[in-house]
Write a structure and sequence with these properties.
The complex is a heterotrimer of chains A (about 375), B (about 500) and C (about 325). With about 375 residues, chain A is mainly alpha-helical. Chain A has 15 helices and two strands. Chain A has a two-stranded antiparallel ribbon with strand order 1-2. In chain A, helix 1 packs antiparallel against helix 14. Chain B has about 500 residues and is α/β, with parallel strands linked by helices. Helices cover about 35% and strands about 25% of the residues of chain B. In chain B, the strands form four sheets. Chain B has a six-stranded mixed sheet with strand order 6-7-8-3-9-10, sandwiched between helices. In chain B, strands 16-17-18-13-19-20 form a six-stranded mixed sheet, sandwiched between helices. The two termini of chain B are about 50 Å apart. In chain B, about 45% of the residues are buried. Chain C has a single domain, classed as ABC transporter involved in vitamin B12 uptake, BtuC. Classes of the chains: A mainly alpha (about 375), B alpha/beta (about 500), C mainly alpha (about 325). Chains in contact: A-B, A-C, B-C. Chains A and B meet through helix 9 and helix 10 of A and strand 5, helix 10 and helix 11 of B.
Chain lengths: ~375, ~500, ~325
Amino acid sequence: MAKDNLKKEPLMRIVKRTKNSTISNKMAVIVRVVAILLALIVCGIFIFVLTKTNPIKVYYGMIEGAMGTNRRVWNTLRDTMILLAVSLAITPAFKMKFWNIGAEGQILVGGIATAAVMRYMGATMNGPGLFAVMIVVSIVAGMVWGIIPAIFKAQYNTNETLFTLMMNYIAIQLTSYFCIVWEAVKGSGTIGTINQETRNGWISTSFLGNIFGQFNYSINVILVIILMVVMAYYLKKTKHGYEIAVVGESENTARYAGINVKKVIIRTMAISGALCGLTGFLLVSGSSHTISTNTAGGRGFTAIIVSWLAKFNPYMMLLISFFLVFLDNGAVQIASQYGLNESASEVMTGIVLFFLIGCEFFLNYRVVFRGKHEEA
Amino acid sequence: MDTNNAIELKNICKRFGDVFANKNITLEVRKGEILSLLGENGSGKTTLMNMLSGIYFPDDGQIFIDGKEVSITSPKDAYELGIGMIHQHFKLIETFTAAENIILGLPGKEVIQMNAVVEKINELIKKYGFELDPTKKIYDMSVSEKQTVEIIKMLYRGANILILDEPTAVLTPQETDRLFDVLRNMRNDGKAIIIITHKLHEVLSLSDRVAVLRKGEYIGTVLTKEATELSLTEMMVGEKVSLNIGRKPPVNVHKKLSIKNLTCVDKAGVTTLKNVSFEANAGEILGIAGIAGSGQKELLEAVAGLQNIQEGSIVFHDDKGDIELVGKTSTEIRNIGVALSFVPEDRLGMGLVGNMDLADNVMLRSYMDGKGIAVNRKKPRQKTEKIVDELKVVTPSISTPIRRLSGGNVQKVLVGREISNAPAVLMTAYAVRGLDINTSYIIYNLINEQKEKGVAVIYVGEDLDVLLELADRILVLCGGSVSGIVDARTTTKEQIGLMMTKHSTEVM
Amino acid sequence: MNIILIILKKIFTVTFIQKAVTQGIPILYGATGEIMTERSGNLNLGIPGIMYMGGIGGLVGAFAYEQSVAVPNGWVGVICALVVSMLFALIGGLIYSFLTITLRVNQNVTGLALTTFGVGFGNFLGGSLSRIAGSAGQVSVYITGQTFRTKIPFLSTKLGVVSDIVFSYGFLTYFSIVLAIFLSWFLFKTRKGLNLRAVGEDPAAADAAGINVIRYKYVATCTGAVISGLGGLYFVMEYLGGTWQNNGFGDRGWLAIALVILALWKPARAIWGCILFGGLYILFAYVPFGDAMQEIFKMLPYVVTIVVLVISSVREKKDSQAPKSLGLSYFREDR
């Protein structure tokens, strides 16, 4: 009976964190900061290999690139607000564990609707009425785009991840279609700046812009900040928000509580799509004044990562959106400064994301080594 | 070592938290015998067997297989030692055929010779007298066919020791007979078979010896031919223990809920409740006893408006008149002013939301109260403070996610919430499962208080001692039907035990 | 009716079929790789990024080789391209696997981050490769690219129309079809294939049957990534002839994920599916409704995918559903 030959318990095992072993808030912050630092070191190595310059200097260049001039500050702010708006838009559905990766498409249809109103009604009804119409149609367009997959999810449990993904490309082709229908120069496939002469339907030069002075994007910032506060309120304080949270945690509990799960799924996706559509309005009317297939620019996907990293907390999303945009704009700047391709920013963003995503493991699980027993 | 023993267990202990699931269990199983492992729910039978099949690892004690000491750390280890366990929840891939499931994970020639596999399976089928088409997909199979696949899977892997966890719970009497024939054939082939059950007539008709566990402890082993239903029941339930639960005589008893000919069918088309009729009275506790899965859950959910009811009526009696509840959703029932409270069995999966804090959980069933789009958290918070205060819930604050609380405190919040809604009917399912003695008594007292207030209480329980001292009347369910309603003050444990395992026709 | 006839006439031409095949092959590689990955229960939305990584990897390998010798040999270039391409795609697969299988982080979030990274990585190297090497102009590996385009001797010229339709492609085309057939056989006829499908359907049951779930998930996901990467390589070498276009690969990676649904998770079905998708992808150029309507026709592959997705969820046919555990990470103690 050679007892030495017996197999022992495994050397280490992974345990889900439970009541007694939840990580403290302080530790959670430390874990994330360490992850970002590690990511910056890896990025530093990447930069050093390619440019042979001191990474510290390069990182200083990034700060310069994102915040160096007034204009850059405004651009960083504008991009932060758009990313934040999309993140806020997808969050209610996401919190319900509905994987809406179709924000890209919902933004585009909102943008198309806005552009159409600007083109066709801009001249006749400039003023508050025009903005009201633009906002309404962009919201309706995004809502329709969001509701379609939701209905199939609620009725037939059709996989929403794949459905919403496909809806993106239908929206992209729709955008291409309108780009040609509205094209500025025959054969160019781009529509140029809408209402360049009159600036009808531009937020910055509208009656709204006049109230807040000459700063280009102050309206965008104000609108999105309001949206953030409203969303925080909606998720935390309203009956709808409560229902979303319960459905997301357990459909069984939701039924026990008397919640109509199908209704909540469809309603929440309507809201999510509507807000994406509104973001399309902000992009077209508030910053680019044109529309192309790149208008959404992958933000629908990045927003999922933002919302997930923020654990659905709108205020955290502001921070994370800012961080990612800062990284992106900074990297674009150093790329041109050191003669690198501007896609370097996506590479760096990717590396930082891997570390941020990976560190979630240490927040949800812990590793127990052999011989250490503890109460369940 | 006696090599006639297929399995020997010595002083096996397993704890979950502070509770001993198994305490110093010593047991042996011989080759070529069928051993019944008998015990009430929660007596530790399945835990013990899970240590043989590699799902749990014992905290203490030794396991010998064929006379050699072994250490079983994974299901794979168990296979290699020739141990096969058939769980209550089958571990089969739905979209595969029987044959594909049977050879899953096995080594062999890389390209599957499906004809040869099917042939070998057919040999096993013939040898032991199974009935199965190896090329049929699992999703087209009945429960009994799926069970057959599981058993053949183990035999195909060369299992010499077979453990079956309540195999007859899901079978019809005819299917049960067929299974027993197969098991006898396997015994005659020299295999050691352990069958976990609490159906006494099956124990008597099938097994060679019976081992009894009670509350995690080993009581003894007897030869089946020397045992009777009565002697086994006594071993299983033990001496009557006095609990001092403090039951008062019911006052002002009147009809509150009449259930007539209730029949429910689940999604898979299986009848879960058959023609159930009874009345629940205000000012009284109606205990519900039965083996796990006899329809308790479905009965309570049907009353709460959460089950698909095929037939029957549920009438609520009020000062204002009678209200039919069948056909109404839980929300509709609430909106017409019927105060039903329900403490479900699955606390964190149905009754509460683990990641929400105490206050948010307390408002789960009343979040729609008040006008406007905002939830009113003021009242729920006050209510939560009150529950925490009165029931002495141990929690850092009422803003703590409830999953961080211990099981007893979780249950206090759940019961506290349901009671705080001033119910006319209070239904609880396994309200003290997994709780320590003190918390259990707090729950008993709360339930007694409700009864004294004139609430009609329906208490689904598994500990017969508790049911006898807490309830006024006890309804016994067996296989989805009512096998009888008895007076808790005059009935004995043995009587209920027998009713739990027999259908009403057999008792009367 | 006339219009339909005109379209049909245009479609039943040799060039249309050739173009449909050329468009379809990268999607076939991507779909085959994603099918292997999804069969293990991992929904890898990083496949579009991995295809970029595979593409640029091939370019890096061939470029490094062509720069290092005076007279490059095309077939050595091909080998260098294949090795580095597979290596880059493998790295992508490993990143995804480590994060989702070992660290059990959310699959969708990880996949999307990987696509951000992979696309950026491809465009970054594609745009700066020649400058890093100290030369000017667009990166080009002409010799290797032409070798990738080598057609089968005799068969590609002597059989008339058959030569044009069936034998006018480079070896990666034929390899993709052989690979898809082989993997279908592997999944449905071998023990490892059976085990892999079990892991994707129900990892707990597979675990109970003694299958090493973690290992299967890793191997399938990484193999799937390498196969997908070949789609990027095909595009860079055979389609573009050995050069890089910024974002040139476009949304073909997402189309590959769509093809998985159309193929009902069976690699062999993806073969005709990829030609269908390839045809739908270029059909716009053959419709006489003007430029704008062409863009509407480009929606077709996606619309078809949605229709298939909806039909299969309405019909609830058990054999043609996504693997049941798709998208969920496996944790034994959750049982």
